Amino acid sequence: MKISVIIPVYNAEKYVSKAVESALQLSDVYEVILVEDQSPDNALQVCHELVQKDERVKLFQHPDLGNHGAGASRNLGIEKATGEFIAFLDADDYFLPNRFTAEKELFKDPKTDGVFNAIGTEYLTEKGKEEFMTNINDDELLTVNYAAEGNEVFRGLLGLTPRVFGSFFTLDALTVRKNSLETKKLRFNEALRLHQDSDFIIKLAHQCYLKSGIIDLPVAMRGMHDDNRITKIIKYSPQYNQRQFLFWNSLYEWSTTLSLEKDAAQHIYLQKKAFELSKKKGVSKTIGLLAAVFKNPYILKTKYRFTYSHA
């Protein structure tokens, strides 16, 4: 396998060396592509040093040298990648030695576009652990509940399977054929500063054929520390609701261009509508909610909690 590992780098001078080294130790890694995103710390200098240490490490920045977010950085990495396969790694996370074990077998099947696995959680600071437990508090092993492939992965991610599919798998645990991304014209939504990874994964699961790999053991570790943006957002707060609306609205706009199964299209629309209503207040919110419930009572089963006092 010739795998290009794409690492967006922002404010990660303390962690990026370990991330890069964890990828370089794997024989199937053909290149490590660092995309530095105008970091406020000394990350750019660390990246230059990593390039000098190993010829497989390549460094890029955006044409204007500005900050464009993780989605745009990953898109640039995809454009620059020359490997047959693409893998992603956050700069504060790292791969384990079994990272591509399942891929070596599963990609022998030409219909397989992508493989996903489980990842573990490592607390790099006590404050990071506290914020994680308060605002996220999902399982330390981020995985799915059972092996799945094809359309069941897409439906499972939307919560539409008879069995509960489980937690979201992450980009750190995903490997995909570059040709599949090109053929399907799949890229990250650069307008999303958060959740662009979840948005990408759901779209990928619908448009490509994904298979589960190692789902009972971690193949990578995500690092939780003081600067994790995602752990600082309190669930069902106005900021959380706004981020969720942007995420579901992105999926909704995408879904209107496709012929999705009716229940999948409805689910995406109702999630978008629920978080759209969350931005309203007082009488207008009450009227909007009553109208939405009258039109489709299933909106009350969305991820948004209409009873949250600050919504």
Question: What is the element layout, followed by pairings?
Answer:
Elements: E1 3-9, H1 16-24, E2 29-36, H2 43-53, E3 57-61, H3 69-80, E4 85-88, E5 94-95, H4 101-106, E6 114-116, E7 118-123, H5 126-135, H6 151-157, E8 174-177, H7 178-184, H8 196-207, E9 210-212, E10 218-224, H9 238-255, H10 262-277, H11 282-295
Parallel strand pairs: 1-2, 1-4, 2-3, 6-9, 7-10
Antiparallel strand pairs: 4-8, 5-10, 6-8
Helix pairs in contact: 6-8, 8-9, 9-10
Structure description:
It comes from Chryseobacterium pennae. This is Glycosyltransferase family 2 protein. GO terms for molecular function: hexosyltransferase activity. InterPro entries: Glyco_trans_2-like, Nucleotide-diphossugar_trans. The chain is of the alpha/beta class and 311 residues long. It folds into 2 domains: 3-232, Spore Coat Polysaccharide Biosynthesis Protein SpsA, Chain A (Alpha-Beta Complex), CATH 3.90.550.10; 238-301, no CATH class. The protein contains 11 helices and 10 strands. The strands form 2 sheets. Strands 3-2-1-4-8-6-9 form a 7-stranded mixed sheet, sandwiched between helices. α6 packs antiparallel against α8 (196-207) and α8 runs parallel beside α9 (238-255).
